[in-house]
Design brief:
Helix content: 40-55%
Number of helices: 5
Strand content: 15-25%
Mean pLDDT: 92
Largest sheet: 5 strands, parallel
Structural class: alpha/beta
Strand order of the largest sheet: 2-1-3-4-5
CATH topology: Rossmann fold
């Protein structure tokens, strides 16, 4: 069950590259049902996830202050945040990297460079799967 079910779904983007944040935000904001929250390091991302309880998180792995791997691990073991869907968005593109991300509890894994449209469609697929259960 998603952490938040309102008309405006908050997507927390945890990413240290402003260009990537801007690209995702621009595309997500085209759909008026999304609002955007951002964090540029892992520690801030963890704090925002806990305080805001976003509808979904897009999470980079290679972040300052705390790795995205650690953020994902902590969020997925916390009973308050474990049901928030997480899409990992990372330049780490090997099969081992992707499998590790999914084993941590991420709901999907997208490699950079990426298509914003693909990320949005993957978000919608996660939402469909969660509303069917």
């Amino acid at each position: 069950m998603p952490a938040q079910q309102t008309k405006n779904k908050t997507v927390l983007i945890v990413e240290d590259e402003q260009d990537v944040i801007d690209l995702l935000a621009l595309n997500l904001l085209k759909d008026s049902s999304y609002t955007i929250s951002t964090a540029m390091d892992g520690l801030s991302g963890l704090e925002k996830a806990r305080s805001e309880l976003p509808w979904m998180i897009i999470l980079d792995l290679m972040l300052p202050k705390m790795s995205g791997t650690d953020v994902c691990k902590i969020l997925k073991t916390d009973r308050v945040t474990r049901d928030i869907p997480i899409i990992i968005l990372s330049a780490k593109a090997t099969e081992v990297d992707r499998l590790k991300g999914l084993e941590l509890g991420a709901d999907d894994y997208v490699t950079k460079p990426f298509s914003p449209r693909e990320v949005i469609l993957r978000m919608k697929a996660i939402e469909r799967r969660r509303t069917m259960t």
